[in-house]
């Protein structure tokens, strides 16, 4: 057990402007259409219970604004996932039906059109066409629903033992005929991984007398039975019928649902402990307080900024703190005093912006998450690259938890067992797992001997998808760079040398003669990453393949045969965050590099809805052209990130898109895995962040701020009054606090254009 030495500070709740509530600027419905897959329901920050109305179609996050029917109300969800729908187990469904044969049971039969969905932090409300208005909120482990039956004679509430992906293998539910308490369990599969998990629930009701109870399956129901076992696919569960109150045409029934991954007893206990009063209003109030405290570490001078940008900003920050979920005390897999977080969904997405943002705004939660990752390594032998529902998720590229470890070290995240963390990242780099589709890396023999993953890799150490040799090579190279940095910091000098060398392996797949055409038109650029065979001969993949311009979706995980993952070789050629100086040299110098980066953004080759697109927005800094990074950021915000329900360009992936937005608008872009923030002007006159460890306040202030964004070019910078010429800054700014003043003008200046002011590169 690690003894906490955290400095506890009072959380300062900063309101935007006197009289305004920051929660008014959070719209949880942003990103609930058009593939954003955002969870818009009620949740506490990183909470396990997540209540929402589940819809048909595109229901990865439970509710989708562009789907017309609600099938139930369920208690746990994931947010923004790209794979299958996730969780959504044991939905309740209320209806009014005079006889059991008139009730609708199965999900396809009971599905009801909806109107008037309302979402706020800690609250979700909706009206169903079946005459029921539903409102809901949560504590950490319980969901609370208030169902108002408009003019009901025979209110009935059923529970269905299904989940959203229809993954259940076995399930059981029982109902107590005197109290109406429903309890049950089920065995389900994770939405983007292997194995299975058990979940338990306990539902209690208040508001009307029990009229009867029973069990149902498919479309038949019986009041004689008080329990039911289901196996395989298909609906089934138990139900409670209520008496109509004598005095009122309305019936209001409150349902409290405790959930647990351990047992029914624990699920019931959570209900009794966390939600003794069935009090919706009070519980919403408590959730709002929790959110205000989390969001309150950031404050914004709103002068001139549009409501739309403010909403985008606060909603993005809110989404970044929905997941990963704190399941501490709810892990049945091993005994440990360490925190247990789940739904790292996936680190491949979240290491680029989401975790760097949490490091800034909630370093204590980041510490608990890193401890949880190290504890997963202790107990499951590898760090995860993706994890959900207590199961191992699929690896998409490198072992990117390595990047998180190094960044946490450099940014002084407290209370981590660094020796074990180092052991874990070295294991990723050295020991191939039996199934590298769910942890570690594949092709390690080739990696160590050839210095790249060959297209025709002959892997005798483990099994896994034999694809993505190019994107895995560049990610493994960056992972090894991060391991080298951690090795150096911890005094492991020979390891430092070894991994530093491997960090240059991206060069082994750079084919300097490769050209690229779009249709019949040759682009003006030569030299791209290309696949290579084990014997050293070059193979070929069209550099634009799997960009929006050619077979866009051809490089998804389940497709076979291609050498890049969810993106083109054109784009992956830019992925050398460890040594941008060497990359720029390789690509023909600064001028060539800038024109190539412009082409990436302007030709339609880049899809902003996937996380690899984030870094190229800001890579102009490495060519001494920070002005172009600022201009590029404004070209995507708000045109591709806005406040509509389809206001994010791709899956939010546990808040990754929201994190890109927030970090871009704060103005300091973190290079994941490094102690480097690239300096850009904030989108607001001023932004401040109070550090959760030191309590110090860091303020980034625009001078000559212009809300129409003509003055977005940095003329000069002052840190605490002194001239600051580097176009980047370290995390000490946030730990120590201070003021970074950014003097703006209408034209690009020479600020940040000298070599000595460039961000660090390995070869410099
Ligand atoms: C439900 O909504 C769909 C789509 O808007 C519509 O076609 C259908 O008629 C509606 N059903 C009912 C019963 O109102
Ligand atoms: C929609 O919901 C809001 C909040 O619950 C409520 O104030 C409003 O009256 C509802 N509107 C309609 C048309 O039902
Ligand atoms: C919910 O859990 C978090 C830890 O993730 C904890 O800080 C918070 O106090 C809990 N909330 C309540 C109301 O217990
Ligand atoms: C309530 O339902 C009853 C029976 O279906 C019906 O006669 C009555 O008109 C309804 N009242 C309202 C206000 O909808
Ligand atoms: C679910 O409950 C039933 C009945 O008590 C029991 O037989 C079954 O083993 C339980 N399943 C799990 C996964 O706990
Ligand atoms: C529904 O009907 C099936 C087959 O007729 C029967 O096996 C099952 O027990 C029934 N379920 C309930 C809940 O009555
Ligand atoms: C299910 O109900 C039957 C009676 O209908 C009872 O005999 C049995 O013990 C119950 N099973 C469980 C696991 O509660
Ligand atoms: C793969 O490697 C093993 C062990 O070195 C060797 O026996 C086998 O022939 C190789 N297969 C191919 C297709 O190269
Ligand atoms: C590129 O072409 C030149 C001239 O044909 C050749 O010498 C060189 O080896 C080639 N480079 C690569 C990486 O294939
Ligand atoms: C290549 O460069 C030439 C000369 O600058 C220019 O005219 C042409 O449009 C460029 N081609 C493409 C595809 O951008
Ligand atoms: C809002 O963002 C979406 C998703 O990127 C985009 O399709 C849409 O055009 C944007 N809307 C506006 C008005 O900019």
TrEMBL record:
Coiled coil: none
Signal peptide: 1-19
Domain Glycosyl hydrolase family 92 N-terminal: 25-260
Domain named Glycosyl hydrolase family: residues: 266-745
InterPro entries in UniProt: 6-hairpin_glycosidase_sf (IPR008928), GH-type_carb-bd (IPR014718), GH92_a_mannosidase_put (IPR005887), GH92_N (IPR041371), Glyco_hydro_92 (IPR012939), PNGase (IPR050883)
Tagged with keyword Signal: yes
One biological process term in Gene Ontology: glycoprotein catabolic process
Name listed for the protein in its UniProt record: Glycosyl hydrolase family 92 domain-containing protein
Originating species: Penicilliopsis zonata CBS 506.65
